[in-house]
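User: I'm putting together notes for a lab meeting next week and I want to include a structural view of one of the chains we've been expressing. I don't have a solved structure, so I'd like a prediction I can at least talk through. The sequence is below, exactly as it appears in our construct file.
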Amino acid sequence: MFRKTTPLLIALMLLAGISFSSQAQQKKRIAILDFDYATVYSDVGYIFGSNVDVGKGIADLLVTKLVQGGQYSIIERKQLDKIIAEQNLGASGRVDEATAARIGKILGVDALILGSIHTFGRDDKSRGTGGGVSVPVPVFGGVKIGSKKAKAIVGINFRLVATDTAEIFSAGDARGESKREGASIQATGGVKGVYTDGAVGMNSTNFAETIIGEAVYDCVNKLAAQLEEKAGNLPARTSAAVKSEGVIADVSGSTVIINIGRNAGLKTGDRLEVKRVSREVKDPDTGKVIRVVAEKVGEVVLTDVDDSSAEGRFSGSGAAKVKDKVVPIQ
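Assistant: Thanks for the context. Below is the predicted structure for the 330-residue chain, given as structure tokens.
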């Protein structure tokens, strides 16, 4: 009996492996922009004692959560920061859908997640204890304690923007709250153990154990759950057609620079075939070249791309040469 069923079991396992492989290949590639927190700017200052970038902190938490979920492939933070710097968006404030789509096309992602934090502290904006925020947190410096207790609340609205069309594929709102309640505390210093190099370290245990930390984590978990539900329906980005083949302009060891880039539809991670012309066939009557015979000499994987050029790592049986042709592998 065992010998008869073994081939069937093997076949089922192979089919399952193919299915898992197919799902992995269909994983959508996204980038997450820092959440805007202008609406809660004063509440943030009240809680932490100074202005801190909670939009970046929450975006980083969401990246970690989605990576753990495995539904998306997420662009590295340093690549996103580089593009934002190149596009002079660092101090521009809010990013609209068109700008997000442009960033997404440069990065070669299917979609971008952007949004804003509309609640950070508590809902009732009672000013009796100052700042309108009622959360017990460990602090440096003095505190002002009120008699009223409340839970911490964090609310975020989000938009999932398709890079091909700049259309909002999906939008929603996530709201998290702390499990505990506490008396109002006004922090005149920072949340203890939360600052890292001047930024808020929301991944720290110290922050997670505060009441506002509980609300942040609850909100991020709910936001990630919504996004993971939509992963399968997100349309894949249409690959931009390359306008023309390029040539290698510079060679340094295995590193090559080619003369086409983003304007030709290329992006980081693309693979290109490297060809070397062996001969040209001419029409005997007109002398016009009617066919170019080229042989493959290797491949290049792009590691850095700008508008008009790209750098990559060459691999092949020989060495790459200046004027070798490059053609994207479809």
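A couple of points you could mention at the meeting. The first helix runs from residue 2 to 25. The chain has two domains: 28-233, 246-328.

User: Perfect, that's what I needed.
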